[in-house]
Design a protein that fits this description.
CATH class of the largest domain: Mainly Alpha
Structural class: mainly alpha
Distance between the termini: 23 Å
Largest sheet: none
Oligomer: single chain
CATH topology of the largest domain: Arc Repressor Mutant, subunit A
CATH superfamily of the largest domain: Winged helix-like DNA-binding domain superfamily/Winged helix DNA-binding domain
Order of helices and strands: HHHHHHH
Shape: globular
Helix content: 55-70%
Length: 101
Protein backbone atom coordinates (compact mmCIF):
# COMPACT_ATOMS: atom_id res chain seq x y z
CA UNK A 1 0.00 0.00 0.00
CA UNK A 2 2.84 2.39 0.88
CA UNK A 3 4.41 1.84 -2.54
CA UNK A 4 1.14 2.62 -4.32
CA UNK A 5 0.66 5.77 -2.27
CA UNK A 6 4.23 6.79 -3.01
CA UNK A 7 3.61 6.38 -6.73
CA UNK A 8 0.37 8.37 -6.50
CA UNK A 9 2.27 11.10 -4.64
CA UNK A 10 5.03 11.18 -7.27
CA UNK A 11 2.41 11.57 -9.99
CA UNK A 12 0.58 14.33 -8.13
CA UNK A 13 -2.64 12.35 -7.74
CA UNK A 14 -4.84 13.78 -4.96
CA UNK A 15 -1.84 15.06 -2.97
CA UNK A 16 -3.70 16.02 0.23
CA UNK A 17 -5.55 12.72 0.39
CA UNK A 18 -2.42 10.69 -0.38
CA UNK A 19 -0.43 12.50 2.36
CA UNK A 20 -3.23 11.82 4.84
CA UNK A 21 -3.26 8.13 3.94
CA UNK A 22 0.53 7.95 4.18
CA UNK A 23 0.37 9.45 7.67
CA UNK A 24 -2.37 7.00 8.66
CA UNK A 25 -0.38 3.90 7.69
CA UNK A 26 2.70 4.82 9.73
CA UNK A 27 3.74 2.40 12.44
CA UNK A 28 2.24 2.97 15.88
CA UNK A 29 5.36 4.65 17.25
CA UNK A 30 4.71 7.50 14.82
CA UNK A 31 8.01 7.03 12.98
CA UNK A 32 7.90 5.90 9.39
CA UNK A 33 9.53 2.59 8.50
CA UNK A 34 12.15 2.13 5.81
CA UNK A 35 9.63 1.05 3.17
CA UNK A 36 7.56 4.17 3.70
CA UNK A 37 10.60 6.44 3.72
CA UNK A 38 11.81 4.88 0.48
CA UNK A 39 8.50 5.79 -1.13
CA UNK A 40 8.60 9.29 0.37
CA UNK A 41 12.16 10.11 -0.71
CA UNK A 42 12.61 10.99 -4.37
CA UNK A 43 15.44 9.47 -6.39
CA UNK A 44 17.30 12.78 -6.20
CA UNK A 45 16.85 12.94 -2.41
CA UNK A 46 18.21 9.40 -2.08
CA UNK A 47 21.22 10.41 -4.18
CA UNK A 48 21.77 13.50 -2.00
CA UNK A 49 21.38 11.36 1.14
CA UNK A 50 24.08 8.97 -0.06
CA UNK A 51 26.39 11.91 -0.72
CA UNK A 52 25.61 13.35 2.71
CA UNK A 53 26.99 10.10 4.12
CA UNK A 54 30.29 10.78 2.35
CA UNK A 55 33.00 13.14 3.53
CA UNK A 56 32.13 15.71 0.86
CA UNK A 57 31.25 19.20 2.05
CA UNK A 58 27.98 20.86 1.06
CA UNK A 59 29.56 22.90 -1.74
CA UNK A 60 31.36 19.78 -3.01
CA UNK A 61 28.08 17.84 -3.09
CA UNK A 62 26.39 20.70 -4.97
CA UNK A 63 29.20 20.70 -7.56
CA UNK A 64 29.00 16.90 -7.87
CA UNK A 65 25.27 17.14 -8.61
CA UNK A 66 25.55 20.27 -10.80
CA UNK A 67 23.08 22.15 -8.62
CA UNK A 68 23.28 25.36 -6.61
CA UNK A 69 24.09 25.27 -2.92
CA UNK A 70 20.60 26.62 -2.23
CA UNK A 71 19.03 23.71 -4.14
CA UNK A 72 21.17 21.30 -2.11
CA UNK A 73 19.93 22.95 1.08
CA UNK A 74 16.34 22.52 -0.09
CA UNK A 75 16.89 18.81 -0.80
CA UNK A 76 18.60 18.43 2.57
CA UNK A 77 15.73 20.17 4.37
CA UNK A 78 13.22 17.80 2.74
CA UNK A 79 15.36 14.78 3.66
CA UNK A 80 15.62 15.94 7.28
CA UNK A 81 11.84 16.41 7.44
CA UNK A 82 11.11 12.98 5.97
CA UNK A 83 13.65 11.24 8.23
CA UNK A 84 12.48 13.30 11.22
CA UNK A 85 15.99 14.51 12.09
CA UNK A 86 17.67 17.89 12.51
CA UNK A 87 21.26 17.36 11.41
CA UNK A 88 23.41 15.72 8.77
CA UNK A 89 24.95 13.14 11.17
CA UNK A 90 21.49 12.24 12.49
CA UNK A 91 20.16 11.82 8.94
CA UNK A 92 23.07 9.54 8.05
CA UNK A 93 22.56 7.45 11.22
CA UNK A 94 18.80 7.14 10.63
CA UNK A 95 19.27 6.26 6.93
CA UNK A 96 21.89 3.68 7.83
CA UNK A 97 19.62 2.14 10.47
CA UNK A 98 16.84 1.92 7.88
CA UNK A 99 19.12 0.36 5.28
CA UNK A 100 18.84 3.27 2.87
CA UNK A 101 22.59 3.70 2.37
Amino acid sequence: MAALLGEASNRGIAPKYVRRLQRDIRPTDGRPGSAQILTELSERELHVLRLLASELSGPDIARELYISLNTLRTHTKHIFTKLEVNSRPAAVRRADALGLL
